[in-house]
Specification:
The radius of gyration is 23 Å and the shape is globular. The model is unreliable at 1-9 and 433-442 (pLDDT under 50). A hairpin with a 2-residue loop joins β6 (46-56) and β7 (59-69). By secondary structure, the protein is an alpha/beta fold. It is 24% helix and 31% strand. The protein has a 9-stranded mixed beta sheet, sandwiched between helices. Strands 3-11-9-6-7 form a 5-stranded mixed beta sheet, with no helix packed on it. The protein has helices spanning 136-149, 213-221, 242-251, 265-282, 298-309, 337-340, 344-349, 351-358, 362-366, 386-394, 419-428; strands at 3-5, 13-19, 25-26, 31-40, 43-44, 46-56, 59-69, 73-78, 83-91, 98-100, 115-121, 154-160, 167-175, 181-189, 197-203, 225-229, 286-296, 315-319, 372-378, 402-407. The chain folds into 2 domains: 3-122, Immunoglobulin-like, CATH 2.60.40; 136-428, Rossmann fold, CATH 3.40.50.1820.
Length: 442
């Protein structure tokens, strides 16, 4: 959408937005009432042209232009089925074009949205349509056996300056089965006694960057054996410009070999997770009892997988996870990122795409998670939709100790926080924020 860039001289646009249900939860048959007051330079906008965008399960269902009244205005949406609604507001210039950019937008990844808020109808009744392959457990048991037969993986360590007194830091390259490499940073308190440390593994989101070394260092500063993993496996500690040039042709937007469950590019990532866990568990400093895994978005699905596949994982902290419901369109929702890039008609013409996706979907892993797990989502998240996240969360076993945190005003890109997960992590000893990391390149 073509627009104009707001400047500081124009006065910054902002909005005060709320719902009649403050928590953003509604029952089907109810009407969600959204109240919004748009502002410029702190003053209420009056007589300005604005636009409402209403999205249901990620698809635009209403676009309405209106004139601001200098006071809160009400808009509403009623649903008779479970799902996710999002209200977004834009401001139009005198020429009728949408204003965008710094000084206008709430977040740079949504350059024209001045303010927004979302809600869920019957969140606990969102049931996933993801199918479980008959050989799902056999498939993963064979892969797990491959990794364990080569465990611990052949490892290349290089000691680095942690720039933190009392912390040892290493870049790590792991050689996994099938010629796959995994990479990241290992850090732990120097002079740690054997079997004395809890361990934490931080999984990277979909960024074309190095693994985040400070995640490992932060854990080590708090007395934890920390490993910060890349999702892509390219060597750590390379120059910044190395990563985009190396990762883009390798990843191909996650579509390379999608129809082949053995060769799909995302399959490599799951091998990495298994090898990274085996590596951490092989370290003499690990106490053999306490193992936390954590990450957001693409790091979220890696965390989910780790919790499902490894019975020694004791705590999982999952923020705004991706890879929930590859076939969500069958339930009237929008599929997750990779499958969102493919037109629905093409997904129907190529069932092998979805058949591959089912082996890697968070919903099928959810059913196998037994450890304590924290999950969070924001109701304006248009990268990893909250309806999909609840489909995953609702698939967790009733016997699993689980906690969901939500916020109707936040979305993706580090905007959704999980204070309960952060408190649990401090109790564990990790001392880091679960979701904060570079913005994803989606």
């Amino acid at each position: 959408m073509v627009g104009h860039t707001g400047t500081a001289a124009d006065g910054r646009y902002s909005g005060v937005v709320s719902l009649d249900h403050a928590d953003g939860f509604y029952q089907t048959g109810e009407t969600a009432i959204c109240r919004v007051l748009l502002r410029r330079g702190g003053e209420a906008l009056s007589g300005a042209k604005a636009r409402l965008l209403v999205k249901w399960n990620g698809q635009t269902v209403e676009t309405r232009d209106f004139t601001t009244a200098g006071e809160p205005m009400e808009f509403s949406y009623r649903s008779d089925t479970p799902g996710w609604i999002c209200f977004g507001f834009e401001v139009l210039g005198k020429d009728g074009e949408v204003l965008s950019g710094e000084g206008v937008c709430k977040h740079r990844m949504k350059p024209a949205i001045v303010t927004e808020i979302g809600a869920l109808f019957d969140a606990d009744k969102i049931v996933s349509c993801v199918r479980e392959p008959a050989d799902f457990d056999e498939f993963w048991a064979k892969r797990r056996a491959e990794v364990r037969a080569a465990s611990p993986p052949r490892t290349e360590l290089k000691e680095l300056d942690a720039k933190t007194p009392g912390v040892k830091l290493f870049s790590v390259l792991l050689h996994c089965p099938r010629g796959i490499a995994a990479s990241g940073y290992l850090a732990y308190p120097e002079n740690a006694a054997p079997r004395s440390l809890k361990a934490g593994v931080f999984f990277q989101s979909l960024t074309f960057t190095d693994a985040l070394r400070h995640r490992a260092v932060d854990m080590a500063k708090n007395g934890v054996l920390g490993f910060s993993a890349s999702w892509h496996g390219f060597p750590a500690a390379r120059p910044l410009n190395f990563y985009p040039d190396a990762i883009r042709p390798y990843y191909q937007q996650g579509l390379r070999d999608l129809g082949d469950r053995e060769k799909w590019v995302n399959s490599d990532m799951f091998f990495r997770v298994m090898c990274e866990l085996e590596f951490v568990k092989s370290l003499p400093e690990w106490n053999g009892r306490d193992l936390a895994v954590m990450g957001g978005s693409l790091g979220g699905i890696q965390t989910i997988f780790a919790a499902a596949v490894d019975p020694l994982v004791t705590l999982a902290l999952v923020a705004v996870p991706s890879s929930c419901e590859c076939n969500a369109f069958e339930a009237g929702r929008t599929p997750n990122g990779v499958f969102r890039r493919i037109p629905v008609d093409d997904l129907k013409r190529h069932p092998e795409y979805l058949e591959t996706g089912f082996y890697y979907d968070a919903v099928n892993f959810a059913r196998r998670i037994k450890c304590e797990i924290f999950v969070c989502t924001g109701f304006t998240d248009e990268a990893c939709h909250p309806g999909n996240v609840f489909a995953f969360y609702n698939a967790l076993p009733a016997t699993t100790r689980k906690t969901m945190t939500t916020d109707p005003r936040t979305g993706h890109y580090n905007t959704t926080k999980d204070p309960r997960a952060a408190a649990r992590l401090r109790e564990f000893g990790g001392g880091i924020t679960v979701s904060k990391q570079p913005d994803e390149l989606r």
